[in-house]
Amino acid sequence: MQIEWRARVALATGIFAAVIIGYTLVYQTIMWQIEGVQVGAISALQVVIEALTTAGFGGDSGYWRSPITDGFVIVMNLTGVGLVFLALPYVVVPLLTEALSTTPPTASDRRDHIIVCGYGTRGDVLEAELTAAGETVVVVVEDADEAVDLRAAGVEAVVGTPESEETLEAVNIDRARSVVVALEDDARSLAGVLTARALAPGIPVVTVAESAAAEGYHALAGATTVIRPREAVGKALARKVMMTYTDPLAGGETLSDDMEVSEVFVPARSPIAGLSLANAALRDRYGAVVIAIWSDGELTIAPRGEREIPPRALLLIVGAHQALEEVATAVGHRVIGPREPSGIIVGYGEVGQSVAAALEEHEIAYRVVDRKDAPAVDVVGDITDPATRQAARLRDAAFIVLAIGDDTTSMYATVALEEYCPETDVLVRAESVESVEKLYRAGAEYVLALSTVAGRMLASTLIGSEEVLLAESPFGIRRVEAPGLAGQSLIDADVRARTGATVVGIETSSGVDVPADPTQPIEADATTIVVGTDAAIADYIATFE
Questions:
Q1: CB-based contacts of 450: which residues, under 8 Å, 6+ apart?
Q2: Pairing status of strand 252-256 against strand 259-265
Q3: Residues forming beta bridges with residue 399, ordered by sequence position
C-alpha cells in the first residue's frame, strides 16, 4: 500500500537525519576535546556528509592526529556504506517494485483490521469514514483494474473472490476486527457471510441486504448486523413527502429528554420563505435554533442572521419538541385536497416499494409508473417518453418520486419533468454521490444518494465512538466523542477552519447545550454534536477523536 511505503520513506529519512545530527555533534566534541581544534557546526556537518557518502574529505584531515579521530572517521565511512545496503532492500527496491508493478496483491498481512468485501458506490463513504476514525481497512474486489485504481487513491485493496475461503484467509480474517459483506448480489453476500462464519466464528459480520427476504436469510446465515439501505432511502424520500404535506416534523430525532433535532421543509409559499433568519426570528419567537440550511444541493452550516431562507429549503433545527412544533406551524405546509391526485412513484424496485409502503401508512395516495408490468404498476412505460408522461397525468400530481436505479436516466427524466410540469416537486433517489449535484442542477427539489446512506449506516454500525443522526438526511450530523478537544474551547481548537465541520452542540451528563458556547472549555467526558459534509466530519474525527 502506498501509505506503507510513505511510512518507510519517512522512517528511513528520520534515521538518516538522526545519524547525521548525532555524528556532527560527536565530531565537534572529538575535534575540541582530542585534537584541540574548534570546528563550527557547518564545517562539522560537511565532514560528516563527506564521510557518510565516501566522497572524500576537506581541509580538516590535516588536524586528525589521534587514533580516536581516525577511528571515528572509519566508523562514519562504514555507516554510510551500511545505510546504502540497508536502504536498497528496505526502501528503494520496494518503492521501485510498487511503482513499476501493475498487478495488485492477492493477500494482506494486516491485523486488527476491517475487511470490506466489495466496494461499489458505497465504498467511498464507508472507507473514508473508517479511515478517519483510525480504523485499518482492507478492501477485497474481484476486478484487478479496480484494485489498481483504489490503491492509487490510497485504499489498501486486494484482488480475490470475496466469498471464497482462500481469499478471506489471505486477508487474515482470523485476525480481523470485523467483516463487511457489501456485494451487489444478495446470494453472494449470503455466501460471504457463511464463509466468514466458518473461518472466524466469533468475528462481527455486517452485511448489506437488498430485500426483506435477503435480510432474514443473512441473519440466519450468521450476520451480526444486516442493513437495508434501499429501504432506508425509500422511507427517507417518503418522509420528505410527509414533511411537505402532512407531518412537518417527520424528519426528526431525539437528542435528550428535552431536546430534539429535526428537518423542516420550507414550502415555496411559506410565510418565512425569502426572509432572513434575523427577520424570521425563529429563535426569539419559539426558542428553536437553525443550525444548518440545505438548498439546491448546497449546505450552509451555522448560518448568520443575514442568511436568506430560500423557498423549498430544508432547515435543520434544534429545540424542545413544543418549540419545533411551533416552528413547523409557522413555516406552514401544503395540504393535499381530498380529490387531488397526490403523487407519482417512478420505478417499483426495492426503493419504490419502500416509498409506497410509507405513503400508504400515512394514507397518501399515489400512482406507480414502471417499465415492467406488475400488479401494483398503474402505468407501464418509460418516464422519459412523452406518451408515458401524458398517460400518468403527471401535471395533476403534487409530487413525483424518481426511484430509478440509473442516475443518467434520472437526470434525463428530471430535466424532462422540469419542462413538462415545473410546479411539481421532484424527489430523486441517486445511486452515487457524484450524481447529486447534477440532479439538483437538472431541477430536482430533493436528492438522496443511496451510497451516502449505505456508507453512513455501515460506518455507524462499525464505529462505536460515534453515532450517526438522521442517516437518511442531506445533513451530515453526528454525535462524536472527541477527547482531543478536552480542555480546549472551540475557538482555541479552531475546529471549523481545521476540518470544515462545525460543533453545534455539547452533550454532558447535565444535558445538551445547543448552540455550543465557543468560549467554554470542553469537558473530558463530553460528546460533541457535529454538522458538516461527510468529508468534513471525517476530518473532524481524524483530528479530534
A1: 121, 122, 229, 230, 233, 351, 429, 430, 431, 432
A2: antiparallel
A3: 343, 425
Torsions phi, psi of 404, nearest 5?
A: -90, 145
Grid look-up 455466501 returns: 191
Q: Where are the beta strands (DSSP E) in 88-171?
A: 114-117, 137-141, 157-159
What pTM was computed for the model? 0.71
pLDDT tens across the length of the chain (545 residues) = 444 556 666 777 788 888 889 988 998 898 888 888 888 888 888 888 888 777 665 567 778 888 888 888 888 888 877 777 766 566 656 665 655 556 788 999 999 999 999 877 667 777 777 876 778 899 999 988 888 888 888 888 999 998 999 999 999 999 999 999 988 888 999 999 999 999 999 999 999 998 888 999 999 999 999 999 999 999 989 988 888 777 777 767 788 777 888 888 888 788 999 999 999 999 999 988 898 898 877 888 888 899 999 988 888 888 888 888 888 888 876 655 444 547 999 999 999 999 999 998 888 889 999 999 999 999 999 998 999 999 998 888 889 999 998 999 999 999 999 999 988 889 999 998 889 889 988 999 889 888 888 888 888 788 765 677 777 777 778 888 888 898 999 899 998 889 888 888 888 888 888 888 888 899 888 889 888 887 788 888 888 87
Q: How far apart are CA 106 and CA 143, in angstroms?
A: 11
Q: Could you give the C-alpha distances from 290 to 280, 283, 313, in angstroms and in order? A: 11, 8, 12
First to last CA, the chain: 24
Single out the residue of 83, 175, 186, 86 nearest to residue 138, CA to CA. 175
* CB of 313 closer than 8 Å to CB of 249: no
- Cell (9 digits) for 412: 434525463
Q: Which three cell numbers stand for residue 50?
A: 563527506
Cβ atoms of residues 266 and 273 within 8 Å: yes
Domains, the chain, in order of start with CATH, read 2-100 (1.10.287.70), 114-227 (3.40.50.720), 247-331 (3.30.70.1450), 475-544 (3.30.70.1450)
Pairing between strand 379-380 and 366-370?
A: parallel
- Judge whether 196 and 181 are in contact, CB under 8 Å: yes
- In whole angstroms, give the CA distance from residue 515 to residue 518: 9
Backbone angles phi, psi at 291, to 5 degrees: -100, -15
How would you classify the pairing of strands 289-295 and 298-301?
Answer: antiparallel
Q: What is the DSSP track for 468-522?
A: EESTTSSSEEEEEE-GGGBT--HHHHTHHHHHS-EEEEEEETTEEESS--TTSPB
d(C-alpha 470, C-alpha 262), whole Å: 8
